[in-house]
Amino acid sequence: MTTSQLRALYFLVLTTLVQLPSSAAEFRTWTTSDGRHETQAELVEANDSAVTLKKADRNVITLSISKLSKRDREYVQAWLVEREQSETLSPGIVPDVLGEQVDLLSMIDPVKDTQAGKWERDANALVSARSSRSRVVIPHAVSGSYQVRLVARRQMETGSLNIGLAVGGRHQVLAIFDYGRTKRSGLAWIDEKNEPSNCTLYRKPVFTTGRDSEIVCTVHHSHLRITCDGKTIIEWTGDPSRLTLHPNFKVPSDRLFLETVYGSHRISQLQYRPIRESKFRQYRPRGNPSPADSVALIEHLQGHGSGFLAAPNLLVTNHHVIENASAGDLKIFFPEESEFVNVHGVLFEDVDRDLAILSLETQRVPLAIAYDGDVPKGESVQLRGNPAIGGGVTLRNAVVKGTTRSMVRVDGFDFLQIDASIDSGSSGGPILNELDQVVGVIAMKATDEGEKLIHEGLARLDDSFKKKSGQQTQDGIAFGIPAQDLAKALDDVRGMSAKEAGRNAQLHENRVVFKRLATLAGIRLLEANVNVPDEMRTQAARVTAIRAPDDLLELIPAQPARLLRSALQSEDIQNTIALLQHDMDKHLNTIRSSPHLSHSIIRDFNALSQRIKAIEKFAQQPGADYLRFSATMTRFQRDVTRLMTNIKEEL
């Protein structure tokens, strides 16, 4: 192995530890049963009678299974079995199962069901007359969990649309959209507070005048979420007894209603579907949303950081906090609990945004998110986390107060800049406004190099940053990932199928194992080089003096080799190796049994692990023959590089 080859290998190892590409589609050749036609495509859906394929040009085709070759039919059957297994073992994502759809719009009689003001029919739509308040009660009882979908159009610039919802069987709440001059939205009343004073306040307009918008309200016993055109605008979790209607409303507790205030809206669709099964059916939150209860300490073998509940059973943190830890190694400690909560899987990772979302199970109430992303300059905020203050001491759920300064744009991404002093370990904690809404995720802190470090990447600023860089921190400036980016990530996770969630969780585990194997490979190759006896170096000098060195391994000189050998035998490096090898056999067994991986990548993982063990054994007894040593090491280096490249391409 020449010096350039050695550098190439170490560069591959180091770049592997920084970032891995996203998962690639599995394209294969599909053949018809008569063998006359072939196509390259990815399998995206299948059942017992047909398959749906997506070709490289993104065109989608559907074929009958009977028209496929025997090999392809066997592949589809194996794929269906794997999907069933993955859905059974999915880490925390179980989509709602909706019942039969009921058309509520056709049930409404504007004369009989109007309680205030005036509603009337216009073709197939229901339209409210412009008045101070127009209310119509929907003549259909609801119970348990359900989903309401309506398509509405605001017909003039002023006026709000309100939806009365039944929650928890006998409680009610009013969802308000675009009320007043500021067009604010939210829930009224929560703890006898209306939307400007509670954590559901949404400050940006929801409707566009003259254009249809789809509103979907998903209601469970202690959780409700409302989206507009697929984007979450209101979410609330808690004891339904905290929800009330204003005493002026006289609506039965099992009925829904529509209301417009100082305006006119056209409702062209209104549908109701009961939820038969739900991931929330066992979810009974304890207490009220509170940063003191919902911010967690995240620990693993290589460090610690912070995180917080942002939705039921979903914990948010920075990507760099968890990127080198498997889900099984992560321990989540909530305040006043000595026992940790297990992580089911890492469902979402955004390296560029330094954001991650984990799946777990807890009855704690998530924090409210500022889904509008509104962060006025000069607003008072608080930052919560678990900073390390030295000497092995970590402050639990520490609070730092600050003031929003501005948005800074770095490499195409916006970051919230705050006047506040934070320490290592706070990464991943929430930034909260005065309504206790999350307006950002703590991502990094300022250092002596300031803006330069921003460009060098958020992942550098983890728990070990000061130790790695030897630089001192400069108090006074903190940076955060804006809430609108967090909101989009949460919606992405909610939209995942069970199979997608399982695949993402497995992909994180694969990346962690790969990074550990890549680092071990580099260490073992280095060990073999520095362990050669001095007489081999004398041989190497004679051989390279009469033979072109391009195809020979360049040995590390004696003095640097002694220093490196001593460093590799140090307690710190040995501890690092132990961490890299921790539960490796268990992780490799998980990879071998994963339904989300191709046979080729499983084979390459196994081969890479075996090569590393062979290199470790060889490093202990490198022999005394330079040419044999050079040939063996060159083969090891070539095999390791090939296997790492193959695995990285699939991850």
From TrEMBL:
Pfam families, A to Z: SHD1 (PF03983), Trypsin_2 (PF13365)
Domain of life: Bacteria
Cited InterPro entries: Chloro_Bact_Ser_Proteases, Peptidase_S1_PA, Peptidase_S1_PA_chymotrypsin, Peptidase_S1C, SHD1
Enzyme class: hydrolase
GO molecular function: hydrolase activity
Cleaved signal peptide residues: 1-24
Sorted UniProt keywords: Hydrolase, Protease, Signal
EC number(s) on file: 3.4.21.107
Domain SLA1 homology, chain residue ranges per copy: 24-78
Family: Belongs to the peptidase S1C family.
Entry protein name: Periplasmic serine endoprotease DegP-like
